[in-house]
Design goal:
Elements lengths: L13 E4 L6 E4 L5 E2 L1 H26 L3 H33 L9 E2 L1 H30 L1
Length: 140
């Protein structure tokens, strides 16, 4: 299998001559990078939704005390994952929104950050709702 084609060389953004010398300072064009915080927020938000489904399964499927305890344990995990997704999403949005001077790296991924925020919030709410359902099933 041949190696992937190389990316063509980018021309310099600008060249500033250094006075009194034959040299110059080259400013390169840096391509934007997807924010790792945004990707992490989305992954953690999806994980919190999946854990909240486990909370519902343990709360509704098992009508004993052990089902309520398991739902409570997974609620803690879902709440922590949802909170982490929300915090990472907010930090990613701030990182993406921050203006960067030309030699610095510019970040993209605003949509990923917003999706991570919404998935984290949904996972957090669903986990708490699943715990409430598990406790209601246990008390009846």
């Amino acid at each position: 299998m041949p190696p992937p084609p190389r990316e063509p060389a980018r021309p310099p953004k600008r060249v500033d001559p250094v006075p009194g010398t034959p040299f110059g300072v080259v400013h390169l064009d840096v391509p934007p990078v997807t924010s790792g915080l945004a990707v992490g927020s989305l992954v953690t938000g999806i994980a919190s939704i999946l854990v909240s489904l486990l909370v519902f399964c343990f709360g509704l499927g098992v009508g004993s005390v052990s089902g309520a305890w398991a739902a409570g344990a997974f609620t803690v995990l879902g709440a922590v994952a949802g909170t982490a997704a929300i915090v990472a999403g907010l930090l990613a949005r701030r990182q993406i929104r921050r203006p960067a001077p030309p030699p610095a790296v510019r970040f993209t991924g605003r949509g990923l950050a917003v999706a991570g925020l919404s998935c984290g919030a949904a996972g957090l709410v669903l986990s708490l709702l699943g715990l409430g359902v598990a406790l209601a099933v246990q008390l009846t």
